[in-house]
């Protein structure tokens, strides 16, 4: 009997060793730097990957570049925050099944010395004009990201913009721009999540917050498989569905940076 049990155990081991292993699928995601710099993706994606036997390869760039990668079929799905650009992307047939995922807000941050005298304001356009008029330095993302697009819109609406050496166009991600602003005693526009993650390192203070114009929604969009037959549309939709499911939304709500909730779930029916 003991010999038979050993034989059965050996047979079971051999069967397990030779059983086909399910291949791990790869999903390519382009996304804005705020989801990476804040630590959100490092928090969310391992849970999705474990649940779906997937590996999500993240390309973290500005929103403009993230949408360009999706337009070219270089990724399967994109997670960004520039609603007008997202709607144009879908309307032109590059993406399908856009869903609201979450939101946070933009804030103006700057040195404790507050050379433009804007601290405590809730009017972002008036504050931007005061920055320009005071000739205080301002560091811009300069990378066509969602933050960069919003900043440019604010300057246009304010009817003023810093000139010459007072305006630094960095062409960098949000975390690097916050570090630059701290080194240069300059102001910058940032999403709150990245600011909170970098606050201790930079020492920058919030100067302006709470203006409804500073609302910052995020959307997730699958690349249109009719345009790019090679994309992993099934995997893309798994990620879209999971991010907007009660599980994904609950995890977004529970994520904290520096002890603060920095993203708020907003999923609803696709539109």
Description:
- This protein is an alpha/beta fold.
- The protein contains eleven helices and twelve strands.
- It has helices spanning 2-18, 33-37, 40-52, 63-71, 83-91, 124-134, 146-158, 174-184, 192-202, 233-243, 246-254; strands at 25-32, 54-61, 77-80, 95-110, 138-140, 167-169, 188-191, 205-208, 215-223, 256-257, 260-261, 264-265.
- The strands form three sheets. Strands 1, 2, 3, 4, 7, 8, 9 and 12 form an eight-stranded mixed sheet that branches. The chain has a two-stranded parallel sheet with strand order 5-6.
- Strand 10 and strand 11 form a beta hairpin.
- The protein starts with a helix and ends in a 6-residue tail after the last strand.
- Residues 1-23 form the signal peptide.
- This is Tungsten ABC transporter substrate-binding protein.
Write the topology of this structure.
Blueprint: H1 2-18, E1 25-32, H2 33-37, H3 40-52, E2 54-61, H4 63-71, E3 77-80, H5 83-91, E4 95-110, H6 124-134, E5 138-140, H7 146-158, E6 167-169, H8 174-184, E7 188-191, H9 192-202, E8 205-208, E9 215-223, H10 233-243, H11 246-254, E10 256-257, E11 260-261, E12 264-265
Parallel strand pairs: 1-2, 1-3, 5-6
Antiparallel strand pairs: 3-9, 4-7, 4-8, 4-9, 4-12, 10-11
Helix pairs in contact: 6-7, 8-9
Oligomeric state, counting identical vs distinct chains: single chain
| Residue share in β-strands | 15-25%
Low-confidence spans: pLDDT under 50, at least 5 residues?
none
Query: Got a strand count?
Result: 12
The secondary structure category is alpha/beta
Sketch the topology as an H/E string, one letter per element. Answer: HEHHEHEHEHEHEHEHEEHHEEE
Biggest beta sheet attributes: 8 strands, mixed
Total helical elements: 11
Could you tell me the radius of gyration in angstroms?
23 Å
* Chain-averaged pLDDT: 91
Helix content estimate: 40-55%
Approximate shape: globular
Query: Distance between the terminal alpha carbons, to the nearest Å?
Result: 65 Å
Domain PBP: 28-247
InterPro entries: ABC-Tungstate_binding (IPR052738), PBP_domain (IPR024370)
Pfam families: PBP_like_2
Signal peptide: 1-23
């Amino acid at each position: 009997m003991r010999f038979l049990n050993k034989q059965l155990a050996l047979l079971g081991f051999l069967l397990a060793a030779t059983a086909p292993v399910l291949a791990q699928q790869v999903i390519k995601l382009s996304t804005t730097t705020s989801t990476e710099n804040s630590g959100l993706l490092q928090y969310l994606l391992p849970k999705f990957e474990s649940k779906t036997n997937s590996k999500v390869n993240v390309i973290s760039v500005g929103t403009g570049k993230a949408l360009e990668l999706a337009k070219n079929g270089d990724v399967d799905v994109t997670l960004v925050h520039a609603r007008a650009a997202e709607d144009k992307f879908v309307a032109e047939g590059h993406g399908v099944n856009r869903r609201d995922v979450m939101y946070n807000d933009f804030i103006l941050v700057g040195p404790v010395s507050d050379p433009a005298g804007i601290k405590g304001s809730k009017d972002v356009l008036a504050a931007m004009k005061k920055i320009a008029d005071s000739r205080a330095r301002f560091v811009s993302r300069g990378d066509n990201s969602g933050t960069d697009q919003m900043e440019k819109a604010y300057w246009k609406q304010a009817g003023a913009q810093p000139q010459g050496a007072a305006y630094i166009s960095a062409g960098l991600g949000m975390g690097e721009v916050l570090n630059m602003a701290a080194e240069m005693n300059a102001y910058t526009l940032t999403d709150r999540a990245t600011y909170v993650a970098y606050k201790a390192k930079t020492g920058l203070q919030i100067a302006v917050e709470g203006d409804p114009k500073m609302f910052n929604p995020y959307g997730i969009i699958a690349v249109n498989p009719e345009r790019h037959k090679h994309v992993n549309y099934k995997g893309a939709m798994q990620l879209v569905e999971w991010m907007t499911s009660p599980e994904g939304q609950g995890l977004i709500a529970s994520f904290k940076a520096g002890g603060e909730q920095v993203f708020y779930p907003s999923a609803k029916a696709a539109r």
